[in-house]
TrEMBL record:
It comes from the Bacteria. It comes from Rhodobaculum claviforme. Transmembrane segments: none annotated. Residues 6-76 form the Transcription regulator AsnC/Lrp ligand binding domain. The lineage of its organism: Bacteria, Pseudomonadati, Pseudomonadota, Alphaproteobacteria, Rhodobacterales. InterPro entries: Dimeric_a/b-barrel, Tscrpt_reg_AsnC/Lrp_C. This is AsnC family transcriptional regulator.
Length: 78
């Protein structure tokens, strides 16, 4: 499994609805409300061999109320 973090910027007043929709899809391992430029951050494990962009696009990025995302791919450092 490949671990990625995705941050979500939501339309005003839509953060709770977006969070519920993300949980309903049963894709994320963890989901947090955050301060700063983005409203939510999710920890997601992508199955080996899956295209990360397609996996996320097909499962999450079509949720209404998401204005922008930022995906951070993790690497094993040690």
């Amino acid at each position: 499994m490949r671990c990625v973090f995705v941050q979500f910027r939501c339309s005003p007043g839509k953060t709770y609805g977006v969070a519920e929709a993300i949980y309903d899809r049963e894709v994320v391992s963890e989901l947090y409300s955050t301060s700063g430029d983005f409203d939510l951050m999710a920890k997601i494990y992508i199955p080996e061999g899956e295209d990360i962009g397609r996996y996320l696009t097909d499962r999450l990025f079509d949720i209404p109320g998401i204005d922008r995302t930022l995906t951070t791919i993790t690497f094993r450092a040690f």
